[in-house]
Amino acid sequence: MISPPLLAIDDLEVRFRTEEGESTPVRGVTLSVAAGETVALVGESGSGKSVTSLAVMGLLPRPAGRVARGRILFRRRSEQIVDLAAMPSSEMRKLRGSEIAMIFQEPMTSLNPVLSIGEQIAESVRQHMGLGRAGAVKRAVEMLDLVEIPDARRRVDEYPHQMSGGMRQRVMIALAMSCNPSLLIADEPTTALDVTIQAQILALIDRLRREVGMGVLFITHNLGVVAEVADRVTVMYAGQVVESSPVKDLFRSPRHPYTSALLNCLPARAKRGADGRRMVQSIPGTVGNVGEGCAFAPRCAHSIEMCRTSSVALEADGERSARCLRWREILA
Amino acid sequence: MSATPLLSVEGLTKHFGRAPHLLRAVEDVSFHVAPGEVLGLVGESGSGKSTIGRLVLRLIDPTSGTIRFDGDDISRATERQLKSLRRKAQMVFQDPYASLNPRLRVRDIIGEAIDAHRLASGARRTERIGELLETVGLPAAHMVRFPHEFSGGQRQRIGIARALAVEPKLIVADEPVSALDVSVQAQVINLLQDLRRRFELAMLFISHDLEVVELMCDRIAVLYLGRIVEIGRAEEISTRPRHPYTRALLAASPKADPDAPKIRRLLKGDIPSPLAPPSGCVFRTRCPHATGECAQVVPALRAAGDDHRFACLYDIADEGRPAAA
Amino acid sequence: MEQSPILLFFRRMFRRKLVLVACIVLFVIVLMALLAPWVAPYEPTAIRVIRRLKPPNELNWLGTDEFGRDILSRIIYGARASLGIGFAVVMVSMTVGTLFGLLAGYFRPLDGAVMRVVDALMALPDILLAIFLVAVLGASAFNVVLALSIVYTPRVIRVVRASTLVIRELPFVEAARALGVSARRILSVHILLNVASPVLVQATFIFAYAVLAEAGLSFLGAGVPPELPTWGTMIASGQQYADDAFWVVLFPGLAIVLAALSLQIVGDGLRDMLDPKLRKAL
């Protein structure tokens, strides 16, 4: 690809000041999203995936959180490349909801309970697109049609609490899409939904991506969802990217031991033991204190002395990259 | 199949509130669980799966129907009569945070189970608490700690130790791994598998995750809006589903395999509210095969081979699914 | 790094300087009340007519009243009665309120009856209800405590019942029920331990209200008999001299304001610290 990616995060570090001292939930995230592709950001709780997305949106809680290092480059519609990490918050606010949009796990908390859904969408398009009142309402109905809410003309007057979880997530998506964003950040958008509803929402996001040609950064802990939606996958562990690969490569031949261990934890990959029982593999221990070396080393079956002592860089190799000293040996 | 089931439920119905706000949580549900057997209850919101778990433990009272446990009809037993049920049937909860009293030490959380049935006292009680912690893979010394000092997975282990304290025959596990991370989930699944074998535990395993259920369970009951739509052996249900809803549920669960065919058949619409379930077959509003008759008749469970039953007026060939691997 | 929970508690509590100041003020007031015979410069009832209505001076730092009694000494002794009555009201209303709140919240059939009485009592203005009760019961310290307890118990019932309704639905209570733990233990261990913090916060507020209400009642003549020095009776008996000798009412008034305000601030501090949602916002 010749044109630079839509979003390129380069060696991002985020620090948080808390009562107990300073913490670094994100300490080495490098990833990119091109226009029209879906990149899944995967990790378990505390891996820093959500903090990364907040940093991109300029929504880190202030003054506790700050970007301490790295750049978040975003290619604007004008082809101008800006660093979101260094952008003043007033500029960021303009960008948010116009060129970059975000959807969350719980749409109820992001929707205003006292405004009808039509009013919320209309308000957003008036602000960002400069439409008049009538035009904005018309656009709101169109948006609800776009996200396949049946009977949009009537439901435009409903309030968030009158809708089901799935419908609210559709409204949230309509709101996000109302200004034609070029990048959509979806933070666990289907985690709170039932399976059959989740399938509908995943299909909807995918359809919109194809139609609009936007890039999607899809944050999730669900590897099934990753396989379903992603073109490329970035795996995080303890605040760092440990692997980035095209989705098929990642599931077929993971390079980082954490990725392969995580995949083996899936019930679908359970193995029949000697006694005939099917057991899942698990990763021993928990995420421990992060020291000098590889953060996963204490739980890794392949770790050697050097893994614990020397810092490990993200090693790029064509379309793939991994943060492991021994991935070649392990694969061989 | 074993001769006498440990748990058998007949025509179980639970309604909450009254008209016009009558919520039909569970409607005419029947099943049985043999000693040492694990039955999975699978369904989405409003399916009534958690309500069934609580009815079986008589934490809530049934509206009608009978629950027989270990030979006794417990459907209408008083709290005093339930004392023996409480020793033989226990519960493990979904939320590892809310299921342990934050103000009590682990020792007191587990000890409460021992005290309630006067199973041990003094040094023997402490020893037993340590034993239970070790059984679930935690150091005995951790008994003096408070819940907030543990991770989610460790808390779930404490909850399991509490349930094991009375040496139950049945455990109702209500989404015991769905709040956990994948790697921790795997540890707890394996622990439950171990314990099940070691103590010959029967389980009612409630979950929305078909893959976990398929792994954990001998048999599976699929629920939709308070009714069982299909029940049978786990492999049978996951490889040869007969009810359109079971098929849709299987098709909608994302597979962690990018080479698997993408979800193609989407169920349209929302799950109806249990406050106003559809007439006839509860699934008909979303069923791709529904006919006029489906609105008239409540389909009864009918046999589809050995210990496999499903509730559909029709027996529709499964055209939308790739051949099972 | 493990921090001692007690240390963390105080660090959180005193992050706001005002809370720290209020705590110190309260501590000093309570200490003075307890040590009254040793810290008060004079007997609170010692009448010296030649020194009546003297403004603050080197002998009587806060002046004297219409009988020549030392106002500072009377305020120090008055703290005993005022705070004592306040404390008694807190104890009675907490005990009774917690008990009924727990029962109403846990045993649904009781709920209707208890809450109807609570609603009825709370519909009346606090001070009016208190005056009415004292008028019926007769003016004495005991009856003031009784009347104010009746006024404030419903607040406690409300708070405890609301918390109980939430906690009884939590899985750990369900787990206890599934284990066959008795209702008495569920209430006294599982629920009581977890309603303790909102009740504690409520207690500091009731303490403040009770100190104010006692003063109000005494001022209106519906409180404790005037012989007993409380801050309220001091203002009540001094009000007719206030035009010429402002110190007679000013200093007891300040004592009331200081005590009530400190209690409120401490209560606010406790609430902010115990409420995780507010804590995060800090």
Could you please describe the fold and organization of this structure?
- The complex is a heterotrimer of chains A (332), B (325) and C (282).
- With 332 residues, chain A is an alpha/beta fold.
- Helix content of chain A is 34%, strand content 25%.
- In chain A, the strands form three sheets. In chain A, strands 6-7-8-3-9-10-14-13 form an eight-stranded mixed sheet, sandwiched between helices. In chain A, strands 2-1-4-5 form a four-stranded antiparallel sheet, with helices on one face.
- In chain A, helix 4 (117-129) crosses helix 5 (133-146), helix 5 crosses helix 7 and helix 7 (165-177) runs parallel beside helix 8.
- The mean pLDDT of chain A is 89.
- Chain B has a single domain (7-310), classed as P-loop containing nucleotide triphosphate hydrolases (Rossmann fold, 3-Layer(aba) Sandwich).
- Helices cover 30% and strands 20% of the residues of chain B.
- Chain B contains ten helices and twelve strands.
- In chain B, helix 3 runs parallel beside helix 5, helix 4 packs across helix 5 and helix 5 (152-164) packs parallel to helix 6.
- The longest helix of chain B is centred in the middle third of the chain and has 18 residues, at 182-199.
- Chain B is globular and about 70 Å long.
- With 282 residues, chain C is mainly α.
- Chain C has a single domain (9-37, 68-281), classed as Orthogonal Bundle (MetI-like fold), CATH 1.10.3720.10.
- Chain C is 74% helix and 0% strand.
- Chains in contact: A-B, A-C, B-C.
- The interface between A and B is large, with 45 and 43 residues.
- Chain C: Keywords: Cell membrane, Membrane, Transmembrane, Transmembrane helix, Transport.
- Chain C: It is a multi-pass membrane protein.
